[in-house]
Amino acid sequence: MDIRREFSILIVDDEKNLLENLYNFLKDKGFNKVFTAKNLKESRFKLENNKIDLIVLDLMLPDGSGFDLLKEVRQTSDIAVIILSALDGIDDRREGFENKADDYIVKPFLPDELLWRIDAVLRRSKKIKNEEKIVLGNVIFDKSKGVLEKNGEEIPLTATQFKILDYLSENINMIVSIDRILDNIWEDSYGYENTLITHIYRLREKLEDNPRDPKILMTIKGLGYKLVKEE
Asked: What is the pTM of this model?
């Protein structure tokens, strides 16, 4: 199952078009549970009646400040909160982080940037829980050490190899498109398919008994890659 399907997001903003656009964007990117609210009253209702993992929060709302909601949430919960606001002053940012916002994005913004921040915040807040060790054939992927264990020996992974394997393991036994891998591994710059192919080949040299006939890190022609774990 795609990890994004497990998490629910509440978008709080009084701009109707922004709400609709973000709702559709996040749905398209794999988030099944996306809720919206136009003001504080609706936000409180949605929070009381749904399990929310992350809030995208505007500050200037018709019935009060988003800071008020942030303070209320922090009294009882560690729900991840990303502030999304046109307020770009240093005092606004400081108040956001002093009240334990996880991130602060200034409007106008790129939807893809928000998506990257959401993924990063969910990881940092440890809402994505995975096995520390994953058995892949006769190889063990030890996430805590960032190594592979094979025949009693530890095989080191480069930073990029670890990120690719970690992301594929979050979608174990599922096909992951090349575009999704590029978007998630190279968050701060553009990734290229040829570069990814090279990293996949190097990973297979460490994972597979025969890298030319892979059984663990599979290419699904025309679709992407799949990390295979026998149940």
From this structure: 0.56
Tell me the Ramachandran region of residue 183: left when phi exceeds 0, alpha when psi lies from -120 to 50, beta otherwise: alpha
Site of tokens 């679709």: 223
Classify domain 133-227 by CATH number. Answer: 1.10.10.10
Closest CA relative to residue 9, chosen from 23, 20, 18: 23
152-178 pLDDT tens trace: 899 999 989 999 998 898 888 889 898
Cα torsion for 217, 153, 145, 113, to the nearest 10°? -20
CATH hierarchy code of domain 3-124: 3.40.50.2300
CB atoms inside a 10 Å sphere around CB 181: 22
Every domain of the chain with CATH number 1.10.10.10 lies at 133-227
